[in-house]
Amino acid sequence: MTTAPEPIERVSAVEALLRILRARILDGELAPGSRLVERELTERFDVARHTLRAALRSLAAEGLVVIEPDRGARVKALAAAELGPLFELRTALEVEASRLALARHGGRLPATVHQAVQHLVAVCAGSPAWSAVTAAHDDVHHAIVTAAGSPRIEAAYDALAAELQVFLIQMRPEWSMPRMAKHHQTLLRDLEASGPDALRAHIADGLQSVLRASH
Amino acid sequence: MTTAPEPIERVSAVEALLRILRARILDGELAPGSRLVERELTERFDVARHTLRAALRSLAAEGLVVIEPDRGARVKALAAAELGPLFELRTALEVEASRLALARHGGRLPATVHQAVQHLVAVCAGSPAWSAVTAAHDDVHHAIVTAAGSPRIEAAYDALAAELQVFLIQMRPEWSMPRMAKHHQTLLRDLEASGPDALRAHIADGLQSVLRASH
DNA sequence: CAGCCACAGATTGTGGAATAATTCAATAAT
DNA sequence: ATTATTGAATTATTCCACAATCTGTGGCTG
Predict the structure, then answer these.
(1) Which of B58, B75, B92 is the last residue of a domain?
(2) For A161-197, how does the pLDDT look when each residue is reduced to its tens digit (9 = 90+)?
(3) A39 in contact with nucleic chain C (CB within 7 A)
(4) Is residue B86 located within the same domain as residue B63?
(5) For the purposes of burial, counting CB atoms within 10 Å of the CB of A150, is it exposed (0-12), middle (13-18) or buried (19 or more)?
(6) What dihedral angle (degrees, nearest 10) is formed by the CA atoms of B36, B29, B162, A23?
(7) What percentage of chain A carries pLDDT values higher than 70?
(8) DSSP calls for A157-171
(9) Three-class secondary structure of residue A133 per DSSP
(10) How far is CA A175 from CA A149, A165, A210, B72, in A?
(11) Is the alpha carbon torsion for B192, B195, B201, B202 positive or negative?
(12) For a 10 Å CB count at each end of chain B, is N or C smaller?
């Protein structure tokens, strides 16, 4: 018998650099709007210029970085005006994902989603760091999208979530912990009771709170 | 008085190459699955190797090209099994787009969409080349998405449409012209009468016909 | 002082070549 | 038939060079 092929991890220099830069951007170390100067980064990570440029180009395609001709790359800084369209796309993905998820599981959402919500509730009960709350919150929505079992929707959603996180990282939202918890318990109930459209209002709510937090 | 600043078009070598390669892929000259050997392409377009590699990397991020480490790039060839997930994403985008479009125009679709359908009907009436039919057909769906006025949904849809075209280019679908025309007139009526969900069945139909055509 | 110009330094865009590493196909060996 | 070996082709990465572009500074002019 043949055992299942277990591919070992081999990362090229570009790929490794890509992951590092992505992580640095997503955790806020490379702040939105900040310039990504080639010489600095090549020295810091000890890679050749072309290697760095390849990584930057991928990040640009991902939407995490903006490249302007002859002016270099900088971490993408979303303007408030761009949030609306971004949330429209998010709505498109997440509503359809929840529809698929419900259809796949006979009108209910799978245990993974329920667990994610329970975890969010548990986190909110204490007095956690905000980063822990956002992580748990993102898990909930990610669990919903994953439950759809549609890899393409999931991939698109992940890219979007990363882009949004770059924006969110620079501000403190204004949700209270108990409200965050309750809101998502309600969402879950509504989704299973009245279908995917329950997400629409929920996401709109999220946009409003983000807009308020960004003054 | 100052005239409105009109930025002139300045394309870098990478950008120019990117456009050429994209066009070659989308019109089928570079067939799905075919290898993109660096030496060949650099000689053909007289660019440096790194310039080409940068363009390929962007195309990979777009989904038109697949890059495997140490094995180079090839034009992406979609397997039939990947069509389902791709159409799920397409459904997510187009259904939400049509919802926004209807909301923006008081429950109707704007003239651009009606014109696009009329054009498709006119094209189908003759005995046109298949490429003319697909072009007119793509215009209809693109008009619907554009009518939503959501740049992010539109961008995602365009990327998807390009990816799908790479797949479709290699086969002759089996829609009859009159059926194509009638089907979209019905779609338009249903959209305005009963809302965005009318698209769901329409897209599912499209997937079925593609799957049948691909044996 | 505001605005314009010119210049120098810094940074990016592209090219070219060299070397290491990897793949792939063909052949030889077990 | 399977496994090794060999070698050519191709990709991955680096280093260097140079032109084009951007940016800030200082001086000049009105």
Answers:
(1) B75
(2) 999 999 988 777 677 888 889 999 999 999 999 999 9
(3) yes
(4) no
(5) buried
(6) 10
(7) 95
(8) HHHHHHHHHHHHTTS
(9) helix
(10) 30, 16, 9, 48
(11) positive
(12) N
Q: Is B90 exposed, middle or buried (0-12, 13-18, 19+ CB in 10 A)?
A: buried
Q: Are residues B64 and B89 in the same domain?
A: no
CB atoms near residue A26 (< 10 Å): 16
Of A50, A92, A152, the CB nearest to B85: A152
Q: Domain of B123: which CATH number?
A: 1.20.120
Nearest to A156 among B53, B54, B89 (CB): B89
- Residues A136-151 have pLDDT tens digits of 999 999 999 999 999 9
pLDDT of B2 strictly over 80: no
Calpha distance B79→A149 (Å, rounded): 18
Q: In a mutagenesis test of the A interface, which of B11, B86, B89 is the best target, namely the one with the most A β-carbons within 10 Å?
A: B89
Using the CB atoms, write b or e for B121-143: b if 16+ within 10 Å: bebbeeeeeeeebbebbbbbbbb
Range of A106's domain?
80-213
